[in-house]
Amino acid sequence: MSKDAILGAIRRGLKRGPLPADQQAMLEGRLMTHPRHLIPARSRRPRPDQIALFVHNVEKEFGTVERVPNAAAVPAAVADYLAAQNLAPRFAMAPHPELIAIPWAERPLLEMEQRRAQASDQVSLQHGYAAVAETGTLMLPSAPERPTTLNLLVETEIVVLRASRVVGAYEEAWDRLRAENRDARSGGFMPRNIMFVTGPSRSADIEQTLELGAHGPRRLHVILIDDDPAALPMGEAAVPPPVAVPGGPAAPGD
């Protein structure tokens, strides 16, 4: 069924016709301009503190983070994490060029397969597209080189993320996605699926008892590559109470 047919059926159910031209123009303008909502002031800070805020918020939500100086340090970080969790050195890996280019041969005991996740997999290694400092959230758009199943089917998910891909607010993550996913034919492109992941899967639906791994991975580990010179030196960020203003940060001192 086409979009016009679906909308026509809804209009008939509401017993009204198409919107007047002025209202249609207003809605189309709003969709094209991507207006800002409330942006918490806590995400407006220097890059070192912004990265530290991201790390703090991941850990607050039961995730873990290890910062490494470059991609060459990733194999050792993966091997050490799996050993610390008493997990086999075996994982399904997203077939992303950045992950494939990592020098895995330096850790020959690591076993990996570049593919989607299967129900029998225990560990996945996913490519981190972007992350949001204000909540410690990973933005993971679906793509052939970034299978969504790697975020859902395993007990333990490891995400390799570059520090240069950490932004302050959600709006900035959406801006990056729109800017980097465009084609001449349609004028724009959105992935089939975009997952926002904040910590391991968890639920407290039953007797208000927190259970990790309720609907997905029970462990989330982020390997953060320090590729952003502006984010160094690594400092600890204090987390102030959130303050929001329409369309931008709060005034200094709020």
Automatic annotation (TrEMBL):
Domain of life assignment: Bacteria
Residues forming the LUD domain are 108-225
Q: By its UniProt entry, which SUPFAM superfamilies does this protein fall under? A: NagB/RpiA/CoA transferase-like
InterPro entries attached to this UniProt entry: FTHF_cligase-like_sf, LUD_dom, NagB/RpiA_transferase-like
Q: Report any Pfam family annotated for this entry.
A: LUD_dom
Output this protein's name.
L-lactate dehydrogenase complex protein LldG
- State the organism of origin: Belnapia rosea
